[in-house]
Amino acid sequence: MRPPYPPSPERSAELRRRFAEEARSERPDLSALCLLLGAEADRELDEAGLDAAQVELDRLAGLLPYRPGGPRAWAVALRELLGERMGFGGSPADYQRLESSLLHEVLVRRRGLPILLSVVWMEVARRAGAPVYGVALPGHFVVGFGPDEGQVLADPFDGGRVLTGADAEVLVAGATGTGLDPAMLRPADPLDVVLRILNNVRAWAAARPERSDVSLWAVELSLLLPSHPARLRYERARLLVQRGDFVPGALELEAYADVVAAVDEGAAERVRGEAFAARAMLN
């Protein structure tokens, strides 16, 4: 499969404007944000493609049985439709593909990372009226159905397998070496889901220095979210320097150093040193 590459600067600016607007809306639309993210990654995803992905989610929702019952019945219905009938799922090889983090590609390939497959589950279930939400377990994203006292978890990466309490314990222990904290089972905020997806994209690109373009747009989209780690500004500055934009990178390093100085003057001085070194590369 062709590797995805970002769109033109003009198209990118429009996508980012829409992404920021959606992220700051009263009720951010998870599927819209994920698709705009995908369009920033893939120049082939045009407006018709964005619409087609939404139509596919609507189509899949229409294939679910009408109000199948309680939380477990919803989880089983989603597993039977998406996991068994449609073949959505994941494997270790999917972690090596950028497409596994792009919703439009996951809808076509029916393969992806746990969090993107969970987005498919959530968006299809939500359209059908299910009480569904994401659950950000450490190292493995799943979906939840129903209220706390009757919560049912399902693992879209494993074809929608309905999880027991022991299954969830095993997933958490495998990722952290610790026990399951009830706080881990709380519904994930849509913007936190998007930030986690962008973190996955950044991790993919970090292992491939030749794709610093992907690292840069993933950081820049993260910075458009209303809440994001301040250190992302430092990461963006270093990426600019790495890509040869020495003056903009040095300016951003200096601005970040000014912020850091309020809490850690030593760290600020180290960042100012990086800015000085970046400017020296112009000579």
Describe the structure in brief:
Belongs to the UPF0162 family. The protein is of the alpha+beta class.
Summarize the topology.
Blueprint: H1 9-23, H2 30-41, H3 47-62, H4 71-85, H5 103-109, H6 114-127, E1 132-137, E2 140-145, E3 152-155, E4 161-163, H7 165-176, H8 190-206, H9 212-224, H10 231-242, H11 246-260, H12 265-280
Antiparallel strand pairs: 1-2, 2-3, 3-4
Helix pairs in contact: 1-2, 2-8, 3-6, 8-9, 9-10, 10-11, 11-12
Plain-language structure description:
- The protein has 283 residues and is α+β, with helices and mostly antiparallel strands.
- The protein contains 12 helices and 4 strands.
- The protein has a 4-stranded antiparallel β-sheet with strand order 1-2-3-4, with helices on both faces.
- The longest helix is centred in the C-terminal third of the chain and has 17 residues, at 190-206.
